[in-house]
Each structure stands twice: as C-alpha cells, then as structure tokens.
Amino acid sequence: MKVIAAYLLAVLGGNTSPSAEDLKKLLGSVGADAEDDQIELLLSQVKGKDITELIASGREKLASVPAGGGAVSVAASAGGASGGAPAAAAEAKKEEKVEEKEESDDDMGFSLFD
C-alpha cells in the first residue's frame, strides 16, 4: 500500500510518470522502505495507463464489495417475516438506552448557576 500511496502522491505532485527512483526517494523522505520488486510490479501494471481511469475502475470494483454496514440488514433479513419485527424492536430499545445514558451524564448532580 505504501508503494501505491507514494505513486499517487508523485502523480498528484505533477509527475505523470514516476520512476522507481522517484518512489524510493519519496518513501525514504518519510523513513519508509520498499522492496524493488513491489515497485517494479506496480510500475509495470500502471505503465501507459491514466491514473484517473484506474481509480474509476477500482471504485466500480469496490462498489460490489460488502462493507461493515451490511451485517445488520443481512441478519434482519435472515430472520424471515416472523423474526424481523423483534429484531427491529430490540434495536429501538438499544437506541433508547443510549439516549438515557447521555441525558444522565449531562446532569452530574450539580448546577453551575445555583
């Protein structure tokens, strides 16, 4: 990842075609090391390609990857019609408890204006 980040920083800085030495210099400036084979692999894969097109195609691929927020909806839908309502009620109760704790923390038993 650090090699990719260095490449992107070099491109962002105006170097449209960074070399292996450019990336090593960039990584060395922050105290990071990178293996030559990693740098060469990256440079061979992005050679002759537009970085904005690569990022756009990567976003399309990542859009299909499930993220952490999907677990709740999967669990609720796995419960079926009979299990869906209790799960929603349990979530509502949890939210109410959280709100009550926040209100009691604000009071602390004294007032600054008394």
Automatic annotation (TrEMBL):
<feature type="compositionally biased region" description="Low complexity">
    <location>
        <begin position="76"/>
        <end position="90"/>
    </location>
</feature>
<feature type="region of interest" description="Disordered">
    <location>
        <begin position="76"/>
        <end position="114"/>
    </location>
</feature>
<comment type="function">
    <text>Plays an important role in the elongation step of protein synthesis.</text>
</comment>
<dbReference type="GO" id="GO:1990904">
    <property type="term" value="C:ribonucleoprotein complex"/>
</dbReference>
<feature type="compositionally biased region" description="Basic and acidic residues">
    <location>
        <begin position="91"/>
        <end position="100"/>
    </location>
</feature>
<dbReference type="GO" id="GO:0003735">
    <property type="term" value="F:structural constituent of ribosome"/>
</dbReference>
<dbReference type="GO" id="GO:0005840">
    <property type="term" value="C:ribosome"/>
</dbReference>
<comment type="similarity">
    <text>Belongs to the eukaryotic ribosomal protein P1/P2 family.</text>
</comment>
<comment type="subunit">
    <text>P1 and P2 exist as dimers at the large ribosomal subunit.</text>
</comment>
<keyword id="KW-0687">Ribonucleoprotein</keyword>
<dbReference type="Pfam" id="PF00428">
    <property type="entry name" value="Ribosomal_60s"/>
</dbReference>
<dbReference type="InterPro" id="IPR038716">
    <property type="entry name" value="P1/P2_N_sf"/>
</dbReference>
<protein>
    <recommendedName>
        <fullName>60S acidic ribosomal protein P2</fullName>
    </recommendedName>
</protein>
<dbReference type="InterPro" id="IPR027534">
    <property type="entry name" value="Ribosomal_P1/P2"/>
</dbReference>
<dbReference type="InterPro" id="IPR044076">
    <property type="entry name" value="Ribosomal_P2"/>
</dbReference>
<keyword id="KW-0689">Ribosomal protein</keyword>
